[in-house]
Amino acid sequence: MPKLKSDRMKPINQLAEKKEQESAVVFSQCMNQVRELENQLEKLYSYRAGYHQQMTEISSRGLGSNRLQDTLMFMNNLNKSIEGLLFQIDKQKEICDAKKRLWMAQHNKTKIYTNVTEKYIVQEQFAQNKNEQKLLDEFNQSLFHRKLKSDKNSNS
Fold it and tell me: What's the pTM value of the predicted model, to 2 decimals?
C-alpha cells in the first residue's frame, strides 16, 4: 500500500520546523548582540556624563591650557567612539531586521506545510470513513440477501 500523503509530509514538516528554529536562534543571537552594543553605549554615555561633570568641577577651580586641551581631545575621542558605536548599532539592527525577515519567512513556510499536512489528514480521514461506510453497507447488504434467501428457503 502506498504511503499516505500526510506521512510523506512528515519529514518535510520536520525539516521546515528545524530550519525555523535555527532561524529563530540566529535572530535571537543577533538581538543579543544589539543589546550588548546598547549596553556598551550606555556605559559610554555614563562615562562621558561623569567625565563631563568632573571636568566642569575642575575647570571651575581653574585648569591649565595643556590640561584643558588634553581633556577636550579626550572628550572629542569619546564622542567619536559614541558615534562609531551608534553606527555599529544601526548596522547590527539592519542585520537583525534581515534575520527577522528570514525567520518569519521560514515560519510562514512551516505554517503552510503544516496546513497542507492537516488538509491531507482530513482528506485521508474522509476517504477512510467513506471506505468503511462502503464496506459496512456491502456487509449489511450481504446479510440482507442471505436472510432473504434463508427466509425464502424456509418458506418453501
Answer: 0.74
C-alpha cell at 112: 503552510
Domain ranges of the chain: 9-116
Per-residue pLDDT of the chain (156 residues; tens, 9 = 90+): 688 999 999 999 999 999 999 999 999 999 999 999 999 999 999 999 988 888 787 777 776 778 778 888 988 999 999 999 999 999 999 999 999 999 999 999 999 999 999 999 999 999 999 999 999 999 889 888 888 787 777 776
Architecture of the domain defined by 9-116: Orthogonal Bundle (1.10)
